[in-house]
Amino acid sequence: MKKWLAVLMVFGLGAVAAFASGGFGIYGAYWDTDDLGPGFGGGVKFKAELADYFALELRAAGITQFDDWEGDDELFVIPLEAGLLFNLPLGDEVPITLYGGGGGGYAIIPEADDIDYDDGFCFYGVGGVELGLGESAALILEAQYRVFEVDGASDDAGDIEFSEESELTGLSMNAGLLFRF
Predict the structure, then answer these.
(1) How many helices and strands in the chain, by DSSP H and E?
(2) Both ends of the chain: CA-CA distance in Å?
(3) Is the pTM of the predicted complex or chain greater than 0.90?
(4) How far apart are CA 132 and CA 142, in angstroms?
């Protein structure tokens, strides 16, 4: 139920923000977690300008290839996030915008090696730069710190419950393109 509520929330915020100017971005991600080590993946983000200096941001990422994961199946972590940004354009002559902000979301972990890990809420802070490549595109470089703790897991049959917590908190570095509209 929580998964569907989080997905509906993201789509609802996206529908509201669709009437504002902004952009759609794709990026590659490197996330260094406390317990699983570094992982790689990618994501998409939607940015809607709310006012001169403020924007709403929706993100969805898929991270895998964690160095310390020893299972046979690939482990994926899929955070769905929403947040507010403060934009600081450096002027009309300089095509650079600095931004920072934060938000929260819901991280989904699909079953891997017949173990169903608990999904949960996550929070993040982000800071970055948009380097304008013209009026319709920008290169984005950002650092994101995500706080996410997995409370437990159960096996596929539901017989065994694992209460060991996993700390997936860590720094993420993202780079990609933002297409403005």
Answers:
(1) 1, 12
(2) 34
(3) no
(4) 14
Q: Is 179 left (phi over 0), alpha (psi -120 to 50) or beta?
A: beta
What per-residue string of b and e applies to 100-129 under the rule 16 or more CB within 10 Å gives b? ebbbebbbbbeebeebbbbbbebebebbbb
Residue 41, pLDDT above cutoff 70: yes
Q: How confident is the model at residue 17 (pLDDT cuts 50, 70, 90)?
A: very low
Residue 16 pLDDT level (bands cut at 50, 70, 90): very low
Residue that the structure tokens 């509520």 belong to: 5
- Spatial separation of the C-alpha atoms in residues 139 and 132, rounded to whole Å: 6
pLDDT for res 1 = 55
Inform me whether the pLDDT recorded for 74 exceeds 60. yes
Helices marked H in 18-156 — which ranges? none
- Is the CB of residue 77 less than 8 Å from the CB of residue 83? no
What is the number of other CB atoms lying within 10 angstroms of the CB of residue 40? 13
DSSP string, 147-173: EEEE--EEETTS--EE---EE--EEEE
**CA distances from residue 148 to 50, 78, 140 in whole angstroms, order as listed:** 28, 11, 24
The two tokens of residue 181 are 């509209």
Cα dihedral angle (32, 35, 36, 37), rounded to 10 degrees? 40
**Biggest CA pair distance of the chain:** 63
* Per-residue tokens: 68: 């310390």
